[in-house]
Here is the input.
Amino acid sequence: MKTIVIDIRLIGKGRTGDEMVFRSLTQEIVALDRENQYLLLTDETDRGKLARLYHELGIVGKENVEIISLVGRNRFVWNLFAVPFFLLRQHADVFHTQYILPIFVPSHTRVIVHIHDVSFRALPWFVDWKDRLMLHFFIPRSLKRADAIVVPSQFTRDEISRYFSSVQSEKIHVVPNACSQEFKKEASQEEVLAAQKKYQLPERYIVVVGTLQPRKNLPFLIRAFAELQKRDTDIKLVLVGNRSAHHFDQGIDHVIAELNLGQQVIFPGFVAQNDLPAVIRGAILYAFPSLYEGFGIPLLEAMSQGTPMAVSDVPCLREVAGDAALYFDPSRVDVCAEILYTLTIHSDQRKQIIEAGKNRFDEFSWSKSAQLLAAIYYA
Here is the structure.
């Protein structure tokens, strides 16, 4: 029996995509494997929150799975002392974490480092200088020590080889992402109407869901939407995301003010996770103008709800969406506006993309990905 240690600090912190990925993979892999011992590390100490974690991960009563609360909310205390000594004491066979390894990991422990994307190298000007400095120093060291590196796409695998050429490509493994459980079925018409009423959404709208940070390229989308409005004045743009996050793109507000779109661009505020399928299902189309992604989970979310997509033409998003989207150059406002218009009026193209999306969506599941991850653990 192996002792497998997984760093689950992100779970419960509300950090959108990365958190959902680790939660979903952890849920699936502990459900899949009843033979080995799983120790899940968190810095959470509140008993109520720890109890909720047990329920959230579906591990209540599982004798081979335990959540361990390590003192050390400070990342340096965690990496310098808490985790290294824990791995030593437990004689851990496998340790799975994200991005940055502790300063010391026992030589007998198989190390799995999960890298969601390398935007910090590809688009460094969008990353806070302190984070950039830390990642610049620690990531190469983590990749060198790792026995296996897990990435969500072939694109990210290629990017690691590009930016970290000393890393052996054979130890980089693709484990695709999937959707959270809320997207396992299409929202009903009743759920769509309820969500539109709850969040005061218009009848016809384009939706974007995710962080509102600069690399998401939302000022560009707003300019394209302004062009669309000249031909379709009834449609609105709904941006679902946290305006108070520290990476909020101030350019969003500047463009809205410049183009006088305060009544046409809507920020519904916090949208509960279980309402997201209905919000996406109710949209006339889903727009994804991002400049850089490691995967693109929102594309799968739109596919699951039968909402056609207009997507920026960057390699990773083509890898995920395939023929289930119309693509535009993320620097050409006129091209994006034309694609948006096409998807609002051409029913045949909408039907083709929706059907392709349903077929494409079925290729991704956390169960399949957990089996790939398990093979990496046990190698």
Remarks:
- The CA atoms of residues 24 and 213 lie 24 Å apart.
- The first strand starts at residue 3 and ends at 7.
